[in-house]
């Protein structure tokens, strides 16, 4: 690990000041990805700004027809929230399936989406539910937030502050996990909303994406029988030691069927 300056601000304004005064800073949320990356010298920062002491970035609340989750809220807190369980049970279920207890008690929702690992669960939750990502500078629709592997719409010095999830009519998440890491080999969030069905896929490609073919089928009939197969080209899917592109495409359809069955149960 290279040397770096360490800052633990207690407010967003202090965090902004620390970022602006550093030559090449990095933000740290739960540190589940950043700390190993620094330890293996895969990244180097002049300063690390730790967001764990900022209370305004924590907590879960209801705002109108949405559940708003602070960026520094841990996976465990989302999984165990009575509010999330009653309003968006699919999101609580998703959080319960992340990693192991140690990861769930340290990792945060804001850190997960800002990192945008192509096999992470929360990007599928955000995209599938049509969430809005709030930052220190603006609000970004999930459709515009996520890019390819580890890429997002965040600009330098921009901090994720909260995620607003509109309440769906029904939703569910189904995942085929890597047995060691619990990351998704393929995970699918299916949500029936007032604006139509949304289907988000993680783990299969270079980043989270929507499967328009399955969305079209479920908009005609929100049933397991309506789901045939993914319309995604295999050339756009990952192929590695864990699963081939062909198998991942198959899993998208299987996980979508399971998610629809859970949503309708």
Low-confidence stretches: none
- Written as H for each helix and E for each strand, in order along the chain, the element string is EHEHEEEHHHHHHEEHEEEEEHH
* Arithmetic mean pLDDT: 97
CATH topology of the domain at 170-264: Enolase-like, domain 1
Helix content: 25-40%
| Distance from first to last alpha carbon | 49 Å
Biggest sheet architecture: 5 strands, antiparallel
Cα radius of gyration in angstroms: 18 Å
Figure out the total of helices. 11
Structural class: alpha+beta
Tell me the fraction of residues in β-strands, as a range: 15-25%
Structure overview:
The chain has 265 residues and is an alpha+beta fold. Among the domains are: 48 residues, Uridine Diphospho-n-acetylenolpyruvylglucosamine Reductase, domain 2 (2-Layer Sandwich); 95 residues, Enolase-like, domain 1, CATH 3.30.390. The protein is built from eleven helices and twelve strands. The radius of gyration is 18 Å and the shape is globular. The protein starts with a strand and ends with a helix.
């Amino acid at each position: 690990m290279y040397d770096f300056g360490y800052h633990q601000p207690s407010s967003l304004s202090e965090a902004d000041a620390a970022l602006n005064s550093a030559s090449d800073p990095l933000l740290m949320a739960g540190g589940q990805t950043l700390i190993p990356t620094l330890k293996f010298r895969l990244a180097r920062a002049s300063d690390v700004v730790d967001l764990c002491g900022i209370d305004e970035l924590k907590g879960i609340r209801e705002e109108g027809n949405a559940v708003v989750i602070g960026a520094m809220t841990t996976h465990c807190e989302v999984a165990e929230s009575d509010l999330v369980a009653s309003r968006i049970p699919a999101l609580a279920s998703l959080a319960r399936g992340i990693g192991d207890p140690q990861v769930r008690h340290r990792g945060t929702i804001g850190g997960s989406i800002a990192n945008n690992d192509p096999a992470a669960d929360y990007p599928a939750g955000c995209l599938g539910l049509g969430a809005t990502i709030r930052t220190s500078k603006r609000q970004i629709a999930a459709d515009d937030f996520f890019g390819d592997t580890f890429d997002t719409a965040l600009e330098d010095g921009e901090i994720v502050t909260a995620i607003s999830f509109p309440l769906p009519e029904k939703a569910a998440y189904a995942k085929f996990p890597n047995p060691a890491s619990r990351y998704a080999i393929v995970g699918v969030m299916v949500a029936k909303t007032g604006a139509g069905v949304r289907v988000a896929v993680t783990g299969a490609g270079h980043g989270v994406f929507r499967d328009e073919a399955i969305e079209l089928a479920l908009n005609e009939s929100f049933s397991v029988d309506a789901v045939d197969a993914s319309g995604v080209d295999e050339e756009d899917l990952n192929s590695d030691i864990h699963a081939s592109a062909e198998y991942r495409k198959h899993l998208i359809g299987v996980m979508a069927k399971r998610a629809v069955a859970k949503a309708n149960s």
